[in-house]
From TrEMBL:
<dbReference type="Pfam" id="PF00291">
    <property type="entry name" value="PALP"/>
</dbReference>
<dbReference type="GO" id="GO:0004794">
    <property type="term" value="F:threonine deaminase activity"/>
</dbReference>
<dbReference type="GO" id="GO:0003941">
    <property type="term" value="F:L-serine ammonia-lyase activity"/>
</dbReference>
<keyword id="KW-0456">Lyase</keyword>
<dbReference type="InterPro" id="IPR036052">
    <property type="entry name" value="TrpB-like_PALP_sf"/>
</dbReference>
<protein>
    <submittedName>
        <fullName>Threonine synthase</fullName>
    </submittedName>
</protein>
<keyword id="KW-0663">Pyridoxal phosphate</keyword>
<dbReference type="GO" id="GO:0006567">
    <property type="term" value="P:L-threonine catabolic process"/>
</dbReference>
<dbReference type="InterPro" id="IPR001926">
    <property type="entry name" value="TrpB-like_PALP"/>
</dbReference>
<dbReference type="InterPro" id="IPR050147">
    <property type="entry name" value="Ser/Thr_Dehydratase"/>
</dbReference>
<feature type="domain" description="Tryptophan synthase beta chain-like PALP">
    <location>
        <begin position="61"/>
        <end position="350"/>
    </location>
</feature>
<dbReference type="GO" id="GO:0006565">
    <property type="term" value="P:L-serine catabolic process"/>
</dbReference>
<dbReference type="GO" id="GO:0009097">
    <property type="term" value="P:isoleucine biosynthetic process"/>
</dbReference>
């Protein structure tokens, strides 16, 4: 497997033998490209079943991946839910953390740094603990207390910032020699983990669905699916990419605004896991939406809250930022963007057990 970094902005290319998280020439986001891609399935029953297409050794693994794909009885029969909130630390971020932390350790990092609204921080803290290296996590001060407590309990150093944007700035400015910045909004290795969901959906369904509806903030899952499905197409295992529908909350809908124009309305107060204002890979996110034939949607807090209550009362213990995917699915269905004969997968990304206090208030 030949692996290289590539910058789509300036054309920079280098062997992926050292730790890079952004282009050293222009400062843009890097991609990890694999030459001679071949899929050979292992006997493992986790994400590393697809290790032949993951450019890292499984040094950090907690059993991530192969989350259930269920057909809920309260939705039309050809709709599935992918229960990513049942990953080891309760979010899809475990796919990206497993690869990014593994690669950081492989390349000699002694400490990993992440900035996060909560879920990615918990995930990186857990995978760092699993490998015995230190982690420093920057979060906005108003991140849920349950998430901050989990980060501390996992042994990571927690640093609070005035805002989500400041958490990112402080994390990058803190970097020292021997430390690896895992910032999932930038990190190309993170996407090599999230892409495994595409491989997994093909494995579970036996084919690709017509559409995937998912929450989107910085685009790590959206881009992972785009990469994964295109890799599957390049090696001849599928003939098409599903339509990807990105669902965003009011106030943090940069992808929607890039495609459709500005939005109005009060910024979300409950979808805290989706509060990224200026994702560095926005151009790539637009390409994924347009290239797949999908679209971006914006939801209000009332719509998110209704979907959250619905899912909780159907037995799905998810966070409000996950419930937004059901809101988007219902909007698409009611607007005839998804016809009744089309197969769709709704991705539920984060666990609601981190929101017990919030649940009590609603």
């Amino acid at each position: 497997m030949e692996v290289v970094y590539r910058c789509s902005r300036c054309g920079f290319i280098a062997e992926a033998s050292t730790w890079l998280w952004r282009c050293p020439r222009c400062g843009g986001p890097l991609d990890v490209n694999i030459k001679g891609l071949k899929l050979t399935l292992s006997e493992r029953r986790d994400m590393w079943k697809f290790s032949s297409v993951i450019p890292a050794k499984p040094l950090a693994s907690l059993g991530e991946g192969f989350t259930p794909l269920v057909r809920p009885g309260f939705l039309r029969g050809n709709t599935y839910m992918k229960l990513e909130y049942l990953n080891p630390t309760g979010s899809f971020k475990d796919r990206g953390s497993a690869v990014a932390v593994s690669k950081a350790v492989e390349l000699g990092a002694k400490l990993v740094i992440e900035d996060s609204s909560g879920n990615a921080g918990i995930s990186v803290a857990a995978y760092a603990a699993a490998t015995g290296i230190r982690a420093r996590i920057y979060v906005p001060r108003d991140a849920p207390e349950g998430k901050k407590s989990l980060i501390r309990s996992l042994g990571a150093e927690l640093i609070e910032a005035p805002s989500r944007a400041e958490a990112g700035r402080m994390a990058i400015e803190s970097l020292r020699d021997g430390e690896a910045y895992l910032g999932h909004t930038w990190n190309p290795w993170f996407l090599q983990g999230t892409k495994t969901m595409a491989y997994e959906l093909l494995d579970q369904l036996g084919h690709v669905p017509d559409a995937v509806v998912l929450p989107v903030s910085a685009g790590t899952l959206l881009l992972g699916l785009w990469i994964g499905f295109n890799e599957l197409r390049s090696i001849g295992l599928v003939s098409r990419v599903p339509r990807l529908y990105a669902v965003q909350p009011q106030g943090f809908a940069s992808l929607y605004e890039k495609i459709h124009g500005s939005t109005a309305g009060e910024p979300t107060r409950i979808a805290d896991a989706l509060r990224v204002s200026n994702p560095p890979r926005l151009g790539q996110m637009v390409d994924a939406i347009i290239g797949s034939g999908g679209d971006a949607l914006v939801m209000t807090d009332n719509e998110i809250l209704d979907s959250w209550k619905t899912l909780l009362r159907k037995g799905f213990i998810i966070e409000p930022s996950s419930a937004i995917a059901l809101s988007g699915y219902l909007r698409l269905l009611n607007g005839n963007y998804l016809s009744n004969d089309r197969e769709a997968v709704i991705v539920l990304t984060g666990n609601g057990l981190k929101y017990i206090d919030t649940m009590g208030r609603i």
